[in-house]
Amino acid sequence: MDRKKYRLLVVAVLVAAFAGMGFMLSSLNSGLAENRRMLSETLARMRYTEAHRRVEIEAAVKKAMTENSLPGGPADLAAIYNAMDSLREGRFNDMVDMVTKDAKTDTERAVAIAKHICATVRNECDSSKHDYSSVAMDEITDPLTAWEYRLGVCGWRAHILVRALARMNIKADIFNIYDYEYGHSCVQAEWGGKKHFLDPTYGGYFADAAGNVLSWDEIERNPRKAASELVVFPRTLDCYPDGERAGNGQRMSEVYRPEAVALVRNAGVLRSRVFVLPVLLDVKSLPSGAVKFGAANGDEKDMRSEEVTRKTRCWYLDLLGSAYENFAYELDLTSLSGRGPVTILLKFCKGSHGPARWEAASRAGKITEGAEGPVCAGASEWRIVYEPGPAKSQSLTLRLSQYKEKSYVKLDCITVSREPKAPADGKDA
């Protein structure tokens, strides 16, 4: 082949190659452009999409990215998620602004948004007219999602209110009452130089003659007077298991009965102090044998079974999102007064973990064994020998030592038994 023909062949091959590459690039650009268009439309639709569509959106975005292989990859997906969260927060803030637009004072703003949350966020009730098939209660993981689904028990409603108040630059905290069965979460907010107690779940607050919202301390100082100044929100979406709509007036009056408020000893903002949670153990039958509460080597629900709760009274920490270093259990052992030593055996759930250590203390009696309990990690049981003192009231306080990492232990079983008497000759029995 002469030189001229060879050059022509090379040029032809290069032209064909460039043409093919151009076609490929054009197709790729077309695919990327289509992909960008799809993602752009997805972002636009998010502005009008409620939370129950989020799973569908994420699936569609992932599919689009997989098929079109966007150069940005996960970074583009992260940007979309950030945009989605920004839009969700924007909708929430718009709601707060709309609800409080006519309010002129912090009191009016706080009451208006608490009233709105009570009227628009519901509890879970399968028999009601609402459709709960789109989400389960345990799928709610943040206050924005709870608000978007309009679903949540007292804890989530308190979180929604705290977030709404923050939008108005009103400082607020979750305020837990641990002396009610399973506890109750409310909100204590601060404006005008003082604190104010709001219940967005049962629906209401307490006010003085001038209309000022009372703090929990003010309610607690005079429960009967506070009850006479109860202000109830007019509307709730809550219903009872039979589908009957709950009445805020009746619920607030029952929950905050002066007698019930007067008995509260453990209420406040989490992490504000160590809360001592009473565990009342009926050990009157101890002379006839060991008394067992719960089931050994079972799971954490065993301590909450109906059989156990007939003999004990406990407030369980996990139901209110507790940080365990802020709580102590107080075992009431009053019926043991003036008697000989007893052995208290505590069995832990298998899921225990973490570096924290249990500690035991008593002002009424003497701990002769087990004052320093086991480390949480791998703990299976804890044996305490307690010698009751002469006082009528006997109790033993159990708590975790301070720690930095998350650590917890749940109890399966508490067994209280009499220490066997040592033989007179000192030999083993």
What does the radius of gyration come to?
31 Å
Kindly state the number of beta strands.
Answer: 16
Any idea what the shape is? Answer: globular
> Which stretches are low in confidence, meaning pLDDT under 50 for 5 or more residues running?
none
Which structural category do the helix and sheet elements fall into? Answer: alpha+beta
The amount of beta strand, in percent, is: 15-25%
Keywords, separated by commas or semicolons:
429 residues; alpha+beta; C8orf32 fold; 16 strands; 35% helix
Q: What this model shows, in words?
A:
The strands form three sheets. Strands 5-4-3-2-1-6 form a six-stranded antiparallel β-sheet, sandwiched between helices. The protein has a five-stranded mixed β-sheet with strand order 7-9-15-11-13, with no helix packed on it. A five-stranded antiparallel β-sheet has the order 8-16-10-14-12, with no helix packed on it. The model has no long low-confidence stretch (mean pLDDT 78). The protein is globular, with a radius of gyration of 31 Å. The chain has three domains: 25-99; 106-262, C8orf32 fold, CATH 3.10.620; 275-418, Jelly Rolls (Sandwich). It starts with a helix and ends in an 11-residue tail after the last strand. The chain has 429 residues and is α+β, with helices and mostly antiparallel strands. Strand 3 (194-199) and strand 4 form a beta hairpin. Helix 1 runs antiparallel to helix 2 (54-68) and helix 4 (106-120) runs antiparallel to helix 6. The chain is built from eleven helices and 16 strands. It has helices at 3-46, 54-68, 74-99, 106-120, 143-149, 154-167, 216-221, 223-227, 248-255, 258-262, 306-309, and strands at 171-177, 184-191, 194-199, 204-206, 230-232, 267-269, 275-280, 291-294, 327-332, 342-348, 357-361, 366-369, 372-375, 381-387, 395-400, 411-418.
